[in-house]
Request: fold
Amino acid sequence: MTNPTSSGPTKPSIISGFDEEALEAGRLLFAKECDFVWGADALNQLPEADLPEVAFAGRSNVGKSSLVNALTGRKTLARTSNTPGRTQQLNFFNLGNRLKLVDMPGYGYAKESKEKVEAWNHMVRRFLRGRVTMQRALVLVDSRHGLKPNDEEIMEMLDRTAVPYVVVLTKIDKVKPNELDAVRKATEAALKKHPAAFPEIHVTSSEKNIGIAELRASLATLAAE
Reply:
């Protein structure tokens, strides 16, 4: 698999349908200033819904913060940690006054108290269900493990509330090609049962910068003019 940002002859896209113009639009959008603007611990603390929003959802330690950093070309915009459950609030980032990126608390991590985990999960679900500016959710799935029951649960909720979403396989540099192919095929088969899911799957590595250009291009179509 090739790095889409490398120089030289044009390489085939990891996901088809993104021509050079679309890839450039994505590059230009994510080259804009991106700043942390708000952190919400509860639904009554949410910022004004004034720009299109993209939410990053996924199990704890799946790589949400790393993906936000890779997309924006910054190393420390979203705080990353090897400790699952570290992101405990909804973190909003303003991308060039055209798009807001929302790094959400990870779900499915049980080391914290049951009450605290349940409160986080409730906030995430209520946020996705009621946010009028939410254009798309990215459901991040660790390519080493594939879909888990927690992922299916959030996908079913997004189906019920008609929030469109796309699955993003993360950490593909950590698996062998045949293993990645098997996980990808299994995920594609599972998505056929989910009406709000896009059939295409993004495959990414934040560490190796694989699939980042294509994901930027996809998200650029949602940004405000």
Remarks:
- The chain is about 30% helix and 20% strand.
- Residues 1-14, 80-86 have pLDDT under 50 and may be disordered.
